[in-house]
Design a protein that fits this description.
Layout (H helix, E strand, L loop, with lengths): L8 E8 H8 L17 E6 L17 E5 L5 E5 L2 E8 L4 E5 L12 E10 L2 E11 L2 E10 L1 H5 L4 E7 L4 E10 L7 E9 L4 E3 L3 E3 L8 E3 L6 E6 L7 E6 L5 E7 L6 E6 L8 E9 L2 E9 L1
Antiparallel strand pairs: 1-5, 2-3, 2-6, 4-5, 7-8, 8-11, 9-10, 9-12, 12-13, 12-14, 15-16, 16-19, 17-18, 17-20, 20-21
């Protein structure tokens, strides 16, 4: 039933601890935004003129309109074996718990189920998939060139892809064939027909010699930091040896595509002063560094 009420009424939605735990640990959508706890949840409200589509199924919710009730307009309270979230509305429809997506203030559609940036020869191919796409006008592809631009939030628009229209599932792609020198950080600006927009997660592509790996401080009294950057598929392996060639420590670190730091701690008295050798490898490439403990 959907009747426009004269005054706002309070609605409570109950959910279990097990349900929020399943949402937090879900892995079916790698690029989807997930809450870290129950208190990040708001409510996406779906209303359709044809009440047939208010059927508790999100797959056909491309006929009506979405709005979002943020955490600032809702109260989450521990209750029994879970929680309830309470908010005010003037009409009834479908309600979906979520954290508001990329900007914490956007209703469920559009759901970006995949967004990748893949280096191929002299080009970068961006691909993204969507579900429940409603009233999206276009996708603007933006890039930050290098870590300084990323830190300063300096993005340039390099292309536009028009939406394929309201649909349960769509796939898109874009090719960037500029001459590359610096690490490139890509994001999508998702613009709706009303002019509102949200941003996708950021995807990076690292090019050879774009980032200088380094160890600091060196010499050190015992703690060294190795700073590096790799593409997501190129994970890091490192080994630490003493001057006799004895293996002391091994490290394995999953790459994020962004600048990362590996800490090597030989500060305790178990490690004598002098020189150590750090061997680092990734994707068949190997580099060595001499570390000096004072």
């Amino acid at each position: 039933t959907q009747n426009l009420l004269a005054e706002s009424v309070s609605v409570r939605m109950y959910f279990l601890d097990s349900e929020i735990e399943a949402l937090i640990s879900a892995t079916s959508c790698v690029s989807c935004e997930k809450p870290s706890d129950a208190y990040e949840l708001g409510v996406s409200k779906y209303s359709a003129t044809n009440k047939v589509f208010e059927n508790g199924t999100i797959a056909d919710n491309n006929q009506g309109t979405w709005s979002y009730i943020s955490t600032s307009d809702a109260v989450t309270v521990p209750f029994d074996k879970g929680y309830y979230i309470e908010y005010k509305v003037k009409d009834f429809s479908e309600f979906w718990l979520n954290n508001g997506g990329f900007d914490r203030n956007t209703a469920l559609p559009v759901e970006l189920t995949r967004f990748t940036a893949q280096k191929t020869n002299n080009t970068v191919i961006l691909k993204w998939d969507t579900e429940n796409e409603v009233d999206v006008h276009r996708y603007e592809i933006e890039v930050a060139e290098g870590n300084e631009a990323l830190q300063a939030n300096q993005y340039l628009k390099i292309g536009t892809v028009l939406s394929l229209g309201n649909s349960a599932a769509k796939s898109y792609s874009f090719i960037d064939n500029k001459k590359f020198a610096l690490t490139r950080y890509y994001r999508l600006k998702i613009i709706d027909v009303d002019g509102s927009f949200t941003y996708s997660p950021i995807r990076s592509v690292v090019f050879p010699n774009a980032v200088t790996w380094q160890v600091y401080p060196n010499p050190s009294i015992g703690v060294f930091h190795f700073v590096y950057q790799l593409n997501v598929e190129d994970n890091l392996e490192a080994s630490l040896y003493d001057v006799q060639g004895k293996l002391l420590k091994q490290f394995k670190q999953k790459s994020t595509g962004f600048l990362q730091k590996l800490s090597i701690d030989v500060a305790s008295d178990n490690y004598s002063k002098g020189m150590y050798l750090l061997k680092v490898s990734s994707g068949g490439k190997q580099t060595s560094y001499k570390l000096y403990k004072q």
